[in-house]
Amino acid sequence: MAKLSIRSVSKSYGAVRVLDDVSVEVEEGSFVVLLGPSGCGKSTLLHAVAGLNPIDSGTVIIGDRNVTNLPARDRDVAMVFQSYALYPTMSVAENIAFPLKMRGLDRQTSQEKVAAVARLLQIEPLLERRPRELSGGQRQRVAIGRALVRDPRLFLFDEPLSNLDAALRTELRAEIKRLHQSIRRTMVYVTHDQTEALTLADKIVVLKAGKIEQIGTPLSLYDDPDNAFVAGFIGSPRMNFLKARVAEDGKAVLVGDTRVDVSHLSTRLVDGQEVTLGIRPEHLDEKQGVELTLAVDVTERLGSTSYVHGALPGGETVVAERREDQPRFGETITLRFLPGRTRLFDTQGLRLR
Amino acid sequence: MTTTASDPTRHFFQPIIVCLTVASVALTLFVIWISLHDLSLMRAGREKFVGLDNYLRFFGDPRAMAALWRTVLFTALATVIEIALGLAVVLFLDRDFAMKRLVRTLLLVPIIMTPVVVGLTWRFLFDPATGMANYLLSLAGLSQIDWLGSPRIALFSVLIADIWQWTPFVILLVMAALESAPTDPLNAARVDGAREWQVTWYVLLPMLRRALAIVALIRAIDSIKAFDLFYIMTRGGPALSTETLNYYGYIVAFTNFDISYALAIAVILTIFTNVALLTMYSVLFPKAGER
User: For residue B187, which residues of chain A lie inside 8 Å, CB to CB?
Assistant: First the structure.
C-alpha cells in the first residue's frame, strides 16, 4: 500500500501530444478515477504508471520510490485490463498463481493464497477451468483475483467493466467498491463512464486531450465544475448549454427574452458580453422560478422519472427531467428553474463564478 | 441451421464428394492390387499374383531400409530446424522497424522460387571448385568441404537448401499468428513480474502453440515427400547417400521399371507417413486441448 505521485508527465506519439504536463497526487488508500472521453490519454497515463509505456518526461513515484525508469515487473503494481488479459493457455488457478510463481513463491503457500482469493471472489468452482470456458463477468473476476493475490502496492484498473453487459457492470462495480472498502488499498481506475466514476471515486481526475481539466471529489465536479467540458461530461443526461447575453449592468443574463438573475456571482460581467448558461436537466423541474417554454419532441420514460427532449422558442434543444407528467410530442410545456442552479461560462468555456 | 438433407446446395457438393471418394478409393485399391503382383515394364503381360512378396521384399531390402532411415532423419531435422529457426527469427523481428515491409516481401522470395532454381543455385554455391560456400570458408580460414560429393555431408547440404527455402514459410505463418495474438496478456505478465524471457516462455509461446503445430505438420508432410531438391542437387548420390524413400520409389519405377515394387514402397511410405503424422497430431493437439 502506498501513495502515488504523478509529476509533470508528458508523452507524445509523433506530433500528437497524448499527455501534456499531467500531475496527479493519489493519497494512500484512496480510490482515484481517471475520467475522460476516448483518446484523452487516460489509458496511456495508466500504462505509464504501470511501466508498460515509457514517458518522455516527468516522474512517477510509488510510495517513496521513484519508479520512472523501472520496468513494469519491478514496480509492484497489479493491473486489471479491459480485455481481461487472462493467460488463455492456463487454468484459472494457474492464472491467479502466475504473479506468485514469477516471484518464486513455493507451491504450498501459493495454493493457499489462490484458494483464499478464490473464496473472496466466489470463483472456487472455476479454478480448474480455462478462461475461454468462462463468461465475461467470471473472467473479470479471475483477473481481479490475479491482481489481488499478491498484495501489490498499487491497483490499476483499465476500463475493467467496459466489455460487460449493463447488469453485470452494475454488479461488479458494487463489488469493486466493496473490495476497496474492505482492503483499503490505493486504486487508480480508468473509465469513460461517468456513472462508474461518480459511484466509485474518492477523487476524480477529468482528462481531455492529454490535459487535466479538473481534479475533485465527485460532488464538487458535479456541483462546481471549473469549465463547460467538465460540466457537460459529468452528469447524465448532460447539462444543457444555452447562449445568453449579459444585461442590467452585469446583474442578469438574457436567454432569448428570459431574464435570469446572476447577481450572486462575484465576477464582474460587462453588458452585452456573450456567455453560456448551463443548467442540468434535473434542475428544470422546479415548482417556481425562471420560466422557459419548451416544444416537446421526444419523451423518454424511465419509470421513476422521464426526460423530455425539445426546443426552446429560439431553436436551442434542451433536455429536461419531468417527474410528475409525461408530455407528448407537439405539446408545449413550461420549465422552471432556480437561478442559483445555473452555471455560467465564458466563450472559452471557463466558469464564471 | 439447415440439415444436410434439406440444404439445396448439397446438389453441388455431394457429386464432387462422390467423385473424389470414388477416384481416391479406386486408385488406392488399384495401387494395392498392383502391388500384390509382380508387374514390371521389362516383361509386360507376364505379371502374376505374388501376394505380400513385394512387402516382404521391402523389409529385406537394405537399400530401402537405408532410404527409410534417411527420410526419417531428413524430415525430423528439416522440421525441427525450420521451426526453431523460424520462431527465433519471428521473435527477433517482433518489433517495429523501418524496413519491416521490405523484409517481409524478401521472405517470400525463397518460397516463390521453383525448386529447380533453388536446387541449381545451391548446387552452384556448393560447387567444390568455384562455389561461394567454399570461398567463404577459405576467407574464414577453414578447410574446404566437398558439399555434394561426400556421402557423409551431401544429405546435410540438401538439408541446408531445404531450410533456406522453407524457413521463411514458417516465419510468415508464425508472424501472422503472432500479430493476431492479443498483446494484453503479455502486458499483464510484465505487470505480474515476469521477465521478458518469461513472458515469451510462459505466455507467448503457449499462445502460438497451435500455429507452430500446424506449421510443423505442414513442414513434416512436405519433407517426407521432398523430391525436387534431391533430384536437382544430388540425384540420390553420391553412393546413394541422399536417396530418400520417395526418391528410391521413383528409381524403382522409372529406372528399373519394377512397377509393383515401386507401388509397394509408395503404400508403405503412405502408411508410415500417416502413422507418424497422426501420432504427431495427437501429441500436438491433445483431446482436452486448450484455447
Answer: 47, 50, 52, 72, 79, 81, 85
Could you tell me where in chain A the CATH 3.40.50.300 domains are found?
Answer: 4-233
For residues A160 and A83, the answer to whether their CB atoms sit within 8 Å is: no
Q: Quick one: pLDDT band at residue A343, thresholds 50, 70, 90?
A: very high
Closest CB to B206 among A83, A89, A102: A89
Band of pLDDT at residue B250, cut at 50, 70 and 90 = very high
Of A160, A217, A149, which is closest to residue A183 (Cα–Cα)? A149
Fold of A240-352: OB fold (Dihydrolipoamide Acetyltransferase, E2P) (2.40.50)
Rounded CA separation B107/B114 (Å) = 15
Residues A83 and A44: beta-carbon distance below 8 Å: no
Q: Give A277-306 pLDDT, tens digit per residue.
A: 999 999 999 988 899 999 999 999 988 899
Q: How far is A216 from chain B (nearest CA, A)?
A: 29
Q: How far is B200 from chain A (nearest CA, A)?
A: 12
The answer to whether residues A344 and A276 touch, using CB atoms and an 8 Å cutoff, is yes
- Residue B116 to residue B125: CA distance in whole angstroms: 14
The sign of the torsion formed by the CA atoms of B93, B94, B100, B106 equals positive
Please give the C-alpha separations between residue A343 and each of A233, A273, A320, in angstroms, as whole numbers: 14, 16, 16
From-to residues of CATH 2.40.50.140 in chain A: 240-352
pLDDT tens-place string over residues A236-245: 889 999 999 9
Q: Identify the helix (H) or strand (E) that includes residue A17.
A: strand A16-26
Find the angle CA(B276)-CA(B281)-CA(B286) to the nearest 5 degrees: 135
Residue A352's SS3 state is strand
- Residue A316: helix, strand or coil by DSSP? coil
Span between the terminal Cα atoms of chain A, in Å: 39
**Contact assessment for residue A123 and residue A141, using Cβ atoms and an 8 Å cutoff:** yes
Task: Assess if CATH 2.60.40.10 describes domain B52-284.
Answer: no
Closest CB to B193 among A73, A85, A88: A73
Domain ranges for chain B: 52-284
Q: Among B104-108, B265-269, B279-283, which range has the highest average pLDDT?
A: B265-269
Predicted pLDDT of residue B289? 46
Percentage of chain B surpassing pLDDT 90?
A: 28
Query: Distance between the two ends of chain B, CA-based, in angstroms?
Result: 25
Residues of B in contact with A132 (CB under 8 A): 291
Domain A4-233 CATH assignment equals 3.40.50.720: no
A173-201 pLDDT, tens digit per residue, is 998 999 999 889 999 999 999 899 999 99
pLDDT, tens only, A47-90: 999 999 889 999 999 988 999 999 999 999 999 999 999 999 89
Backbone angles phi, psi at B46, to 5 degrees: -115, 20
